[in-house]
Design goal:
Blueprint (H helix, E strand, L loop, with lengths): L3 E5 L24 H11 L4 E6 L1 H10 L8 E6 L21 H6 L9 E5 L2 E2 L2 H11 L8 E8 L10 E9 L2 E14 L2 E5 L5 E5 L3 E9 L3 H16 L9 H10 L4 E6 L5 E2 L6 H13 L11
C-alpha cells in the first residue's frame, strides 16, 4: 500500500484557551493528539505524512517529530496567506487563514498518492484509519470516487461546551450533502441545537457526522484550485471569508464530478475543542494505553 496522511495542523483554535491546541501534550512522554493519529496511520498502512503548518510553528513541529525519522516519511507544507492561484494576491491586512479547502490545496506539491485528510487536534481511533486505509488501497478508490469516514454524533459531543458538526445526508452509501449545524449539545434524545430562526431542534445520536476524515486522490488539487479561483473572484476582499473543505466536496458532488462514499467507524471521537477537554483526552489515552492499544512511550517502545 502507498498512501499519504495529510494533516491540517495550521489552525488557530479560537475556542481553545490553553495555547496552541495541536501542540498541547496529552501523552505521558509529551505526545500530542497528532502523534497518536500518525501512529495509527502507520499501523493502518500509510507510508507518508504531510503536515500542513503555519510558518511560526513549523520549526517546533519538526523538532517534536524528529523521533519519526526512519519510521515514516514526514514532510511539511506551509499554509501561507500569499499562496494563491494566479492572478490573485492576498489583500493587505489579511490575517485569517483561507480555510480548510486552502489548507488541503497547500499540500499539492507533496502528495502524490491516494491520501487521508484529517485535523491535527482530533483523536480518531485506530479502526478509523484502518477503514479508510482499506478503501484507499482498493479498486473502489479512483479519481472520481472518494470517501468520508463518518462518526455517530453521540460519539463526538463535548461535555464542556457546544460543538459544530456537519451532519451527513447519505443515499445508497454515497454522500449527497453535509449540513452544518452549530451549537450542538448533548440531550436525552441524542443532541439539540438552535437553528437560525431561534427554534430548538433535535438530532438522533445515531446521525452520521463529518469530523473532517476524508479520503481523496491527488485529482482533488486542480479541482480545489478551480473552486478557489471562483471563491476569490467573489470574496477576495472579505477579511474573514474562508473556503471550507466540505464546501469543495459538496460542490463537486452537486456538479456530478465525484462520488463520495460514506464509510463508518465505531470509534469514539475525542477532540481538543475547549481547554476543559484536555483532561478527558489525557484520561482516554491513558485508558487505551492500559488496555495495550498504545505503548507507554509512543515512539520509543
Amino acid at each position: 500500500m502507498s498512501a499519504t496522511l495529510l494533516v491540517l495542523a495550521a489552525g488557530l483554535g479560537s475556542r481553545y484557551s490553553g495555547g496552541i491546541k495541536q501542540m498541547d501534550p496529552v501523552g505521558t512522554h509529551g505526545e500530542y493528539v497528532l502523534d497518536y493519529s500518525i501512529f495509527d496511520a502507520i499501523r493502518g498502512g500509510f507510508d507518508k505524512v504531510v503536515l500542513v503548518v503555519r510558518k511560526d510553528i513549523e520549526g517546533a513541529l519538526r523538532e517534536h517529530f524528529r523521533p519519526l525519522e526512519g519510521k515514516v516519511d514526514v514532510q511539511y507544507a506551509v499554509q501561507s496567506l500569499d499562496d494563491l492561484p494566479a492572478p490573485y494576491q492576498c489583500p493587505a491586512g489579511r490575517a485569517k487563514p483561507w480555510g480548510t479547502g486552502h489548507a488541503v490545496w497547500s499540500g499539492r506539491h507533496l502528495v502524490k498518492t491516494p491520501f487521508a485528510a484529517i485535523n491535527a487536534d482530533d483523536f480518531y481511533g485506530a479502526r478509523t484509519f484502518q477503514v479508510l486505509g482499506d478503501f484507499l488501497n482498493s479498486p473502489a478508490c479512483d479519481d472520481r470516487t472518494w470517501a468520508l469516514v463518518a462518526f455517530q454524533l453521540a460519539n463526538t459531543l463535548s461535555d464542556h461546551g457546544t460543538v459544530n458538526r456537519g451532519v451527513c445526508h447519505v443515499a445508497a452509501g454515497a454522500l449527497t450533502g453535509v449540513e452544518e449545524h452549530t451549537g450542538i449539545s448533548p440531550a436525552p434524545e441524542g443532541a439539540r441545537y438552535t437553528d437560525a430562526a431561534g427554534q430548538v431542534k433535535t438530532l438522533t445520536g445515531q446521525a452520521p457526522v463529518s469530523l473532517n476524515f476524508w479520503g481523496f486522490t491527488p485529482a482533488i488539487f486542480p479541482r480545489i484550485e478551480a473552486i478557489f479561483k471562483d471563491f476569490l473572484a467573489k470574496r477576495l476582499a472579505e477579511p474573514k471569508a474562508e473556503l471550507h473543505l466540505p464546501v469543495v466536496v459538496d460542490t463537486l458532488i452537486r456538479e456530478g464530478i465525484v462520488t463520495t462514499r460514506v464509510l463508518h467507524t465505531p470509534e469514539r471521537w475525542i477532540g481538543m475543542t475547549y481547554q476543559e477537554d484536555r483532561p478527558l483526552v489525557i484520561e482516554r489515552i491513558r485508558e487505551l494505553t492500559r488496555q495495550g492499544l498504545y505503548p507507554e512511550n509512543l515512539w520509543n517502545a
